[in-house]
Model the fold of this input.
Amino acid sequence: QVQLVESGGGLVQAGDSLRLSCAASGRALSNYALGWFRQGPGKEREFVAAISLSGGRTTYGDSVKDRFAISRDNAKNTVSLQMNNLKPEDTAVYYCAAGSFYSASSTYYTREDVYKSWGQGTQVTVSS
Done:
């Protein structure tokens, strides 16, 4: 089982940028597809972004498309989420997740149940 620890959260203003990182230990991240999910206050957890094993396929939730970018660095065993033009509705706890799978379907990457390892989350608060 891979252990995941998120960092980089904080309090920012609308329009600002923030970069989240997720560091892995215990296993090499090169064996996993990686995703970011978030849960806002009073909301269910939702899919944000995912990246395939090779890094060749990225998938984004509709609300973050064109603003967020996911990337992976297998040499450093990390996955990152660059968040630009942040909005108050992006306020949430952000979780990284890892799953040992490959799929040709982008929709598959949006499912929570395919990720077996989860971090504890990092809080992102965007003020208006």
